[in-house]
Each structure stands twice: as C-alpha cells, then as structure tokens.
C-alpha cells in the first residue's frame, strides 16, 4: 500500500496503525489510515443515515457498494487478483503540502486522489492492458485517496451536513477518480455525480449536490 507515512515522534498529531478493510469476499483490500488527533473528534461518530457504526466499517460498506455499482465490468476482468486501495484520513497541513507539490496549488483541499493506473471506465479493455503489465501473482493497486479533516468538517458545517455524510461523499468521489472517472467537462461531471448520488442514496444519504455550494474540488 502507498498512503501517507505515519508522523514521526514529536510531530503534531497521532498516527493510528493502518487498518485493513476486506471487501467483496476478500477480493478488495483498503488500507485505512487515520493521522492526527482531529479524527478523534466525536463529530465523525455521528451516524450518516445507514452509514452508522464504527467509521472504518462505514467506509468499508460505502466502498464495497460503490465498487459494485461503478466497476463491476472492470473488476470482473481482474478475476482472482487482489485489488488494493489506500485511504488516508489526515489534516489540512498534510493535504496542503501534497496539493502544493503535485498540483502547484498552495492550499488545502477536501480530497485528493492519486490513481496508480490509467483506466477508462467506459472501456473495460484498458483494464486488460493494465493487468498484462503486472506479474501473475501481483495485486492490482488502484491508488490513494487522501482526505483533509478540517476542510471536510468546515464544509459540512457550511452546507448543513453531518460531517460523516460529507466525508463519505468525498471518499466516494475520490474512489471514482481511481477508477478513471473525472469531471473535466459537463458530461463527465454528470456521469460521476450520478454515480455518487445513487451510491449515497442507497444508504439513505441525500443528494450531496442539491442546492449547495462547495462541491468536491477538481482533483
């Protein structure tokens, strides 16, 4: 797994051990890491409709549903190969540094995605091309999703949302980027938003784009 490294002793915040979430009958593993005291804030424990319970379990349920909905054709081509994803919940300072280094934007943003492979969600054969480059027993690493806590919490407050609900939307958004989705033009954005809306609705979460400002940044 890639993800952000734990902070060294003396750094601000606390890095929890990486938790492995097994999804889809063990076919998919998510390495979930929470970095910093801000993730101990009780606001993240407030249930988001049916995405209740421990935060890690809720993330696992969301990710499993999203992959089933958005990537069934692509994932079918992977067959028995393990699929790996990294999700790091960190703070604004860490995300600002990544945003500056990789996107030349010296500010925090709500979510960053770093796809490990070039996949076209509308052309499953691109997955075959990726798999042909991997050793037979090697897992398929889809990439990293990295979330900034303070920004997510502030956006949730501004939009009148439960923080966990906004977090789940951003994780779904980030995962879709790993699967090759983007929002460069209106058609792409409409397709991506439609998947996010339907996935969240399956857990009783309202349309995150309805009458709000501050949709996920173009990451």
Structural account:
Helix 1 packs across helix 6 and helix 1 (55-70) crosses helix 7 (186-201). With 219 residues, the chain is α/β, with parallel strands linked by helices. The relative contact order is 0.17. The protein is globular, with a radius of gyration of 17 Å. It has helices at 55-70, 72-76, 92-103, 125-132, 149-159, 163-178, 186-201; strands at 19-23, 28-34, 83-90, 111-115, 140-148. The chain has one domain (19-201): Collagenase (Catalytic Domain) (3-Layer(aba) Sandwich). It contains 7 helices and 5 strands. It has a 5-stranded mixed sheet with strand order 1-2-3-5-4, with helices on both faces.
Summarize the structure.
The protein is of the alpha/beta class.
Question: Uncertain runs with pLDDT below 50, 5 residues or more?
Answer: 1-15
Find the CATH superfamily. Answer: Metalloproteases ("zincins"), catalytic domain
Span between N and C termini? 21 Å
Radius of gyration, in Å, reads 17 Å
Query: What is the correct CATH architecture?
Result: 3-Layer(aba) Sandwich
Give the domain tally.
1
How many distinct beta strands?
Answer: 5
User: What would you call the shape?
Assistant: globular
**CATH hierarchy, class:** Alpha Beta
Can you write the helix and strand succession as a string? EEHHEHEHEHHH
User: Within the CATH hierarchy, at the fold level, what is the topology?
Assistant: Collagenase (Catalytic Domain)
In percent, how helical is the residue content? 25-40%
Strand order of the largest sheet: 1-2-3-5-4
Structural class: alpha/beta
User: Helical segment tally?
Assistant: 7
Estimate what percentage of residues fall within beta strands: 15-25%
Largest sheet: 5 strands, mixed
* Mean pLDDT across every amino acid position: 89
